[in-house]
Give the backbone structure.
Amino acid sequence: MRIAVDIFGGDNAPFAPLKACVCARKAGIAEVIAVGDEAKIKEVAEKEQLPLDGIQIVHAPAVIPVEANPTDITKKYADSSMAVALKLVAQGEADAVISAGSTGAFVVGATLIVKRIRGVRRAAFAPVIPGCDGKYMLVDVGANVDCRPEMLLQFALLGSIYMEKVLGVKNPRVGLINIGTEDTKGQELQVETYKLLKEASLNFIGNVEPRYLSEGACDVAVADGFTGNVVLKTLEGTVHSLFSELKKVFYATPVSKIAALTLKKGLKKLKNKMDYSEYGGSALLGISKPVIKVHGDSQAKTFVKAMEQAIKMEKMNVIGLMAEAVSAAKDKE
Amino acid sequence: MRIAVDIFGGDNAPFAPLKACVCARKAGIAEVIAVGDEAKIKEVAEKEQLPLDGIQIVHAPAVIPVEANPTDITKKYADSSMAVALKLVAQGEADAVISAGSTGAFVVGATLIVKRIRGVRRAAFAPVIPGCDGKYMLVDVGANVDCRPEMLLQFALLGSIYMEKVLGVKNPRVGLINIGTEDTKGQELQVETYKLLKEASLNFIGNVEPRYLSEGACDVAVADGFTGNVVLKTLEGTVHSLFSELKKVFYATPVSKIAALTLKKGLKKLKNKMDYSEYGGSALLGISKPVIKVHGDSQAKTFVKAMEQAIKMEKMNVIGLMAEAVSAAKDKE
């Protein structure tokens, strides 16, 4: 499998994505294509002693800034590393693409350049979040601020296939994020989506309050991109602030410091458990090829995990199955 | 000040609210009126050795169940402890009311029985949440699932007055909960509300991502009830699950148990810090009298805190100031 990696996206670019390419190549995970300014890639590789043997470099002179208008990816920034990486996939020269760059530009670029699966209304970001009890997918987390019920139904279908095939969750339980469990709860979007999900060929378990997500209430938590993003960012903020508060408790006195040292291993493990980069990146569900966005501050390790994720998607024919499911749902309408 | 307490609301009723009445009376905090089935109140008081001296009992034979249709509070459950407590306030026989019962019924009851401040479109629930860096008010957290921009503007006005007068925050910074900081971010509701808040007599600091709430990004975080509820419940769930995960780390080995013991005091303090019942209950902003909802699982301590909160609201003329602010904003329109 050939994976195009945007070398100039994210806070740790170009080092982190380039190192990931080198690691993946060395481990024989995949054929990697490093996309970006060739001279700069070679310069960094030499400086950081990263051997580029076996890595194909595809030159792209520009970089799309995070603050750029997302639609500029096909215009002003058509020669950016992100756009060129997406084009490689669109033209069949790569099978998957990974980037840590601008989220908005990546959604627009994937939709316009790589294109959606036939029948899919909108692509959705779907990170897999670790909870106390297993993990769950949150879909969408921001690709679509305004959603209609039919879009949420598709997110549920796509998310179920992903969880079953990529993460081995049998008959994934789909929940609709809502502020109460009764079918009359929520805004019009939730009330209408509830009806659609109930009728669909899905293991729909009803509304799920975000309070119970991390306790394993469902495997696929469906929401519009606004609500999903609010859940994700509240979660991130709370985990972050609790760990920083814990640090204060640990560093309070010499005795507490020693006690904390004893617990270090367990706490480190807990922190890793809460870190959702453990499951790679956010797959952009609904696009006709594996397109994976990793967090802006990702290190090489996360890029490698995302590559494994793309490989699993290909191996399990996830996109083929998604196309079938969407088409079958359409026939049912 | 005379405070009516719904003795039959919440998971720990009637003991917790009744104990709170006894404590408050003993400490001379307020004149308390215990509302509920008189025979049962006397029975519990005797069994639990709670002296009822100085506590007025107002009989109400029924209890409104959590699953009841909220609008039934003025019909089928007009003789419930919650409805009767609200009526006492409406008739001027009490100055404030506290309940841990059904949230929906309390909103409807307060709106229909006690009534809103003149000019207020909707009442909103506004808990004060502890963060790492200070505290912030979240308004609304569920009284209004569907909101218009003008409602959010009023929430901001009411919330600012509360934070300034009750919690002593000077010139409170108002933030609009959104998925990005730019003024074009969010759904139509956020985009339109942004414009209104910018023009208002408020210390509006712009959009705030929920990621930064606990770091003290703002003092009053404004949202529609659906979004606010999602933030609150995600936050609650994350804190709960992190603490239960921590427990596992602490109880993992004999050595970790000893280490955890050393940290116990600091951790307990942290847990209390994260517990938003520390600030009492959620004031139902926009109602013409102090109406305070405490969490369903509240203990006596939280009821007492809520009484102190109601007293502070009265002492600082919070409702008078809110009426002025709403009227001034209306004149500006």
